[in-house]
Amino acid sequence: MAKAIRFHETGGPEVMQWEAVEVGEPAAGEVRIRHEAVGLNFADTYFRTGLYPAPLPAGMGVEASGVIEAVGPGVADFREGDRVTYTGSPLGAYSTERVMPAEHLIALPDEIGFDTAAAMTMRGLTTAYLLRRIWPLESGDTVLLQAAAGGVGLIFSQWAALLGVRVIGTVSTEAKAEVARRHGCDEVIIYTEENVSQRVRELTDGAGVRVAYDSIGATTHASSLASVGRRGLLACFGTASGPVPPIDAMRLAIAGSVYVTRPALADYIADPVERSELAGELFDHVAAGRISIEINQRYELADAVVAHRDLESGRSIGSSVFSL
Description:
Layout: E1 2-7, E2 16-21, E3 30-40, H1 42-49, E4 58-59, E5 63-71, E6 83-87, E7 97-101, E8 105-107, H2 114-132, E9 142-145, H3 151-163, E10 166-171, H4 174-182, E11 187-190, H5 196-203, E12 209-214, H6 221-227, E13 228-236, H7 249-254, E14 259-261, H8 272-287, E15 295-300, H9 304-313, E16 319-323
Parallel strand pairs: 9-10, 9-12, 10-11, 12-13, 13-14, 15-16
Antiparallel strand pairs: 1-2, 1-4, 3-5, 3-7, 3-16, 5-6, 6-8
């Protein structure tokens, strides 16, 4: 019988349970997938804690890769035996197999392994829209990247280097700084030891950065805003430390007519054509070796509680996956 991680109430990691589940056959527009690897993302904790509401009881996880075992009526783009990956709703990726809508699937090239796909689909597509969609970056531009040693951060710095974009990254420790540098981060600020916005201004001759990318939220919002140059952009794409505080419009004017956006991946992959374009660019870079995906933490799916504790404590570096 299939197994899955589910939660019946919101709270800490301990609310997750390893349960036997009935999967059933796919209905119209659906497929049944046997998972080979499952992605672990900070966004998963938002559902578990209730920050992102979900009807309970619920499955956990939004990213996985595997093989299609059955296809329901009306599915034209996939067939049994196809290798696929996905990220997004509905919840339930923390499972050995599941039934889900075929419209969310992305065909996985043979050159990319299942573990790699589970480690990069959400992070890679997030990087893709951050660098290729929300702001017209040009070679020579400088950007700030909070959490440069995180899963998105390590992909982001490599991709930015391909575009000629200079990255100033922030990390919490020297060990993480070394990892960030190894993946192409040009300048690294250890935020536990330095004033981030002050150092950014020093590194940009007072001008500030073109864009500040912030996935941390509450504790870094002020330093990110103070680092943006005139008519630049603050992109708040995560809330690892808590929600971003309300925006004071006059403060944006004083900061230099700064723009602010709170983008979500779902809105950049909702259009199948755009999703295919972003995924194609990502897969091409990874398959060619221009972007490397390092999996630094591996867990058994039954050990999801341990994995979430590691993730929320800040012990994780780069990407983590559940191997099946």
